[in-house]
Design brief:
Blueprint: E1 4-11, E2 19-26, E3 36-43, E4 53-59, E5 66-74, E6 82-87, E7 91-95, E8 101-108, E9 120-121, E10 134-139, E11 142-147, H1 150-154, E12 159-170, E13 175-176, E14 181-186, E15 190-193, E16 202-210, E17 222-224, E18 229-236, E19 246-250, E20 264-268, E21 277-281, E22 288-292, E23 297-301, E24 326-327, E25 333-339, E26 344-354, E27 358-366, E28 388-389
Antiparallel strand pairs: 1-2, 3-4, 4-7, 5-6, 5-8, 8-9, 10-11, 11-15, 12-13, 12-14, 12-16, 16-17, 17-28, 18-27, 19-20, 19-21, 21-22, 22-24, 23-25, 25-26, 26-27
Length: 392
Amino acid sequence: MRTLLRLTALCLVPLALACTETVFVDDGGALVSPPVNVRYTLEPSGDPTRPAGILLSWDGVGDPALAEYRVYSRGSTGASFGLRGSTTSNTFHDNGVPHVQYYVVAVDLDGRESAPSTTVTVDERLALERPLTLSSISLDRAVHLVWADNAFAAAPLRFRDYRVYSTRYDLDANLCDADWVIEGTTVAPEFLASALTNGAPRCFAVAAISVEGYESLWSPLRQDTPRPDGRNVLLYAHAADPTRSGLRFWNDVNGDGRAQPAEVGLVVGGATADADFSVRRDAADSTLWLRPEFAGVGMRLYAGAPVADLTDVDYAPAGGYGRGEIEAVPGYAYVFEINEGSAVRYGAVRVTHVGRAYLILDWSFQPDPGNPELLVHAGLPTVIVTGFDVGG
């Protein structure tokens, strides 16, 4: 729409009073309106101090004279604004570490810019609190992670989601690899990292993301190792069926050092060297007992009380293993140290039912040599937790 400007001029008439005259001049057309409601979202990168980029968006200007938008930015509040780019869309993606401030102008068909929009400031101080704790549960080809929900509790209206990261872990050096990858995102304070390799230790970390995309500092780092397990395995007393009275945790048939499903949790004859342990029946009272069979196997009771589930059994203790039989009692867990000369590995079972001729149990096994990840740390609360924190 074209408008007229009213100019007022002063005229002088001899021997008369001063007068004024109004003249209307065409101004060439009004400018388009500036964009409003400019907002932004950061793209998390895993490094809270270096986002991967920023996405600016604003309400579109509904004017047929609109040609494009121009985005201006500056790297510090003391610097001058410079043209960052232009777009015909009402969004603009700036790749890499964002500048500190941005504003947007609308440009008409004659190339004239509107007044600037409101300036938006990227302020990392808006980041949420980091999750204060991180715990884990070892599972078959998976690790279940649980963390403190303090970021959401402190700012529920600014919370968007959590990002879960993982990388390889060096058990001997107690170090996480530098090559982190994202496992996924979730709005809940828990996550199942699945499709993992059994016996391959991994480090995990969690960050809280705000609605603007600010990434918090990471939670404490957590190490955990997936391991094979099995549920409801039936073993007979040796006197009832000697061919199905033993369990071998792992038989690496193809020698590749990886525990394939067909190689673990094998029901075998109880009186052979194939069995890590067997089930024996006391002739006097018909109670069933677990007996180490393989020469390198030591066994011990996990705790002096029943455990709620196999997942309660996490880290193997450093000692206390023996060759003596231990009575199989429903709800109790038993830990095995398997010394094959060149490597020591650990397994565990939890007995769920005991009859006169057979018992039913759940088992777990850690194929990673020297990795005792089967029992709860001393001093940790008696909830289902596995793994351990890495570093300070």
